[in-house]
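Section handout 9: paired folding examples.
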Amino acid sequence: MDEKNLKEALSHTFKELEFHNISISIYRCDFQKLRVAHDSVHEFRYLAANIVKSEEQCYTRSAFLLYHWEASDRAHLSFLNALMGHYNAAYTLLRNTLELIIKGAFWECLAHKKYRKTAEIVEKESGKKIENYKITLTSVLDKAISENPSIEDELENCSVSILDAISPFFEGNEETIPNKKKIIPNVKVMVKQLAFWGIFDPIQEVTDPVEYIYGLYSELSDDVHVTLDRTDIGRRLLSGKELFETEVIVEELNKYCENLHKVMDIGIVAELNIFEDYITQDDKTRVWLKERLADITMLGLNYSSTKIMEVLR
């Protein structure tokens, strides 16, 4: 491709992406809300990189780290879409971000025996009863471990291997694996179980973590399921904008930033709880986290800053 065609292709692509809306969004929005939302994504992303110090630690928490990296990437992409005026895409990616955080924490915990043995919510609220026996995700894992005891050590040492252990439930269909959907817990059950395990501590000191987190997830789902007023055209209609032009809607952008900020606060809380033993066992990490506390507090990440203070006591 010659230089002229390349420039034309790039110019056309940038126009389609509505890149020009980025500067308009930054100029017109509540800049403080935008800044703290953006910087919160960076805090979420780089906390793990500074807490996890060794290859062994990385493998031990690899299930969470896999989802965490994906979540931070999706959060950034969501933010950029919001700046460009693609609000439905931004919110859809934001729900995806929250779901990645929830599932990453859930699979991480379930890989470890101390959590798996207290998975009471999973046992009660998911699974399928067949005659006098109830099949649940934990019973499936327990059966696999009883048949091959080495799996337990593998899960403890490399938590991401839990995804191999349960892969048939993702790869199979209802014909090959009956009741597949009932055996894998839904997001609400995962949130309940994580709250029971204390992964959202200290959110429960202020509000019901299940209502708060799953409520936010449900609200974001309206964009995923394209409820009419959550489509971009619906938003433009309600805002009195031109229906078929991608315009910046300041109120929508400000609201989006608030929601992104909430999701990142939840994510950092989960992150801190997942890595709490790494923090408490390493003096350098504690010193570094103490230095980060001021910035995290300034960003209004209230649940996160409270958790950090608890960990550093």
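Moving on to protein 2 of 2.
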Amino acid sequence: MALSNNSETTDKPQQQRQHRGISFYVEILAQWIVDLIAIPVTFITHILAQFVTPGSSGTKILGALGFFIGTLLSSDGIWQTLFNGTPMFSWFEKTWIGWVGWLTLPFNLFFWLALGISALVQVMEARSLRGKRPDQARTEFEESKQYTLGSKPTGNIDLTTALWRDYKVAGMKERHAGGAIALFFWLFDLTTTFVGRNPFAYTDPGQILGCLAYNFTTMMAGEIGYTIWRLSK
């Protein structure tokens, strides 16, 4: 009986150590399996993070892609209005150039002119929407405060009065001209877009709303893409 008890006492620690050893290896194996499963998930997560992190390569790609697609969509209206071209896309159009036409389009000089004009319009519109950064506006404000203006001179020649007036309104012509240029580009984009695709040519309210939404989307896609691309730099 004593030998039996001693044998059982000796076997129990061995069984416990053996059980712990098996559990340890099972745990390692399970961890390896989970890590292997997590590799593609982690990889996809890191890729998605690149597209939402400001300043990353992903946001630059998204911005550039959005700017290119928006410019291409907007160039369709310019292509139709200024160069009397066949619509490049089939949406809300009675006819379009077709897939074969897209193969010959890169060899058409007017297509590249329309694309260049569209890119210029998108950039100018994006600049007018973006405005100035706070630090830039503050710097210009602080610089302008150093120029004090005295009272209007009296008893002097007309040239003195004219120069005083020039000094008083210095810099304002550029501001007014910038606003006029921005307004011109917006009106130009609006005109070419709606002349190329007139939503009021339809009678179905759904088609009218759809065409309106498509027109405004083509106008804003390039500006949004350009703004994202600029912010990612």
